[in-house]
Amino acid sequence: MIRRFLLLLTLSISFLSIPTLVSAEAAPDFTLSDVNGNRVSLADYKGRPLILHFWATWCPYCKKLQPGLERLSVEFENQGLALLGVSFREDEGVNPQAALTERGHSFKTLVKGIEVARLYGVKGTPTTLFIDSAGNIVGTTNTSAPDDPVLRQYAMIAMQKTAN
Questions:
Q1: Which of 31, 58, 100, 123 could crosslink 105 through cysteines, CB 3.0-4.6 Å?
Q2: pTM for this predicted structure
Q3: 62 pLDDT higher than 60
Q4: How do strand 127-131 and strand 136-141 relate by DSSP bridges?
């Protein structure tokens, strides 16, 4: 009886740690500006897998996660994977792009993204979505661990959907 329980528990934990694609839903289109006023739209990334990272400069968990996201985007850049930040709930006068640059990151972030966060059902930071080249959300996570295997697994799913 105990062995059976332990086997079921082990299998359950194994399945929980592997992200699966239950159903892909279309990522809502949006347009926001970067800190320089340049307009960027989700449609600008059509045809490419995308990591869409909702964050804030004051969020210590975002700061912890971002090196891992940047590594993923650089590693799979040749396969088209892009990384785009959406900053929201910022204090007045903060420059999110400058904060990223100071941290050694080169990915672009968009600002004043509270309405886009609502559109995507984002409740807090960090929230990271993985979107395939057809514009479908194939994974969402709130992890702050930069080496969490879920990040790579969702990126692979997004790129695999792109290859199909």
A1: 100
A2: 0.85
A3: yes
A4: antiparallel
